[in-house]
Specification:
The chain is of the alpha+beta class and 178 residues long. The protein has one domain: Glutaredoxin (3-Layer(aba) Sandwich). It contains seven helices and six strands, in the order ααβααβββαββαα. A four-stranded mixed beta sheet has the order 2-1-5-6, sandwiched between helices. Strands 3-4 form a two-stranded antiparallel ribbon. The relative contact order is 0.15.
Amino acid sequence: MFAMKKSITLFLFLMFSAIAFNQQVKIKWYSIEEAEKLIKDNPRPVFIDAYTDWCIWCKRLDQDTFSNPVIAEILNTKFYPVKFDAEGKREITFQGNKYINDGKSGATHQLALALLPVQGGIGYPTTVFLNEKGQLITRVQGYHTPKDLEVYLSFFADKAYEKQKWEDFQKSFQGKVK
């Protein structure tokens, strides 16, 4: 009898653990066009993850960082998160302009060229932050751990960039990611 109760308890624990694991907070990704429409009715900053299919660090960002529940919660509640394939073939209309991938710039989409130019070239992944009007705030290249990305997200979501320097914000930031 004791062994049966122990087995049932173990079974229930494993079942509820599996349910909790599968119900992790996931990021609701939008297209750039969807985000542009959403900010008109409910202004919020836009977070763009510019990636490519071949980029190993882009895949690590998906696995390690975007799967973190704290990061997912911030992106879902304080931003319109956009997944953008910087080498995609889809025609995109953003801010009244049409962007295509015509192959003239290698595999790079025209919108990527408009959003991502940084000194030294385009690298992936690149995170682009737009304000609630769809205007560029900044772009940040490279892979970021959940702890590192949380600092960036808070800096831009809370508009701290309007009041203080990045270095000062970063030093005093107390995040939730462990």
